[in-house]
Each structure stands twice: as structure tokens, then as C-alpha cells.
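User: I'll paste a sequence; please echo it back and then give the predicted structure.

Assistant: Echoing your sequence first, then the prediction.
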Amino acid sequence: MGLLDKIKGMVNTDDAYGDNYGLDENEGDDIIPTRSAASRPGMNISGHDNTVAIELKVVRPETYASVTEIADHLLNHRTVVLNLEATNREVAKRLIDFLAGVAYSIDGQLKNVANNTYIITPCNVDVADSQIRTTEARHSTVQQPAPAVNLTSDTLF
């Protein structure tokens, strides 16, 4: 038995004291707390899937009469892909006008994703538009600015 053990035995008879020998009181202050799994986005600790199922309806209307069915899908928080390839041009304009109003009234969005194809989303769905902008830019006509004309007093007379 060493001298240190004898002194320790005389001063304190508690055996638990030796378990913390050599540790400072403030030694644990250097630990950086991390976020728990419950607070991390995308982490699922319950074992259940937290994703929300989004219903997607693809419609190919031929007449304006189908506009109420499409509006009902939107009002029931369903995303609608509107394919107007087989639709008369005048009917397609009326459908787009009406459905744009429906989308606006429910804080949704109507976006052109391709020629004669639109996606209409309710307020709980967001569409990333990196690809949509590319599609819109490809199909839009870009007007060239008029050339600049330099007018001086010599050209006016």
C-alpha cells in the first residue's frame, strides 16, 4: 500500500471518491453540444415515415366542361398536370384562365412545364423551377432591342 493510499484512507473512507480521481470540476466544459436526432431535419426517430403523400392527377381535357372536375382536384389539395395537346386552342385558353383563377384563390401556382402542358399545385406543394425556367426560356420568343441611333444636330438638318 502506497503512501497516497494511506492518506486517502485516513481522510475519506468513501470508495466513490477514487472513481473521479484526476478529473477537474470544469473538465467537461470543453464538450460542444450537438443537436439531438429529434431536432435534425430529415431524421426520423420514431421509425415511421414522415413523408407526405402527394396525389398527382394527369388530365387531358377535350372540352371546357371538365374544368369543374379539375378545380375539384385542386380544392382537394391534389396536384394537377394539365395536358392540352388534344384540346382546341380557344378551349385551352378558357381552361387556363379559369384554372389560373382557381390556383390564385387557393394560394396555389400554375406553371408551364412544356408545350401545352401545365402543372397546377395547391398551396401545400412547391415546385422547384430550375427546369421549368429552362423550358419556358426555350419556348419563349426573345425580342432583340432596337439598335441605338445617335442623333446629333448634323443628322437633323
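The beta strands are 56-59, 79-83, 109-114, 117-121. The longest strand covers residues 109-114.
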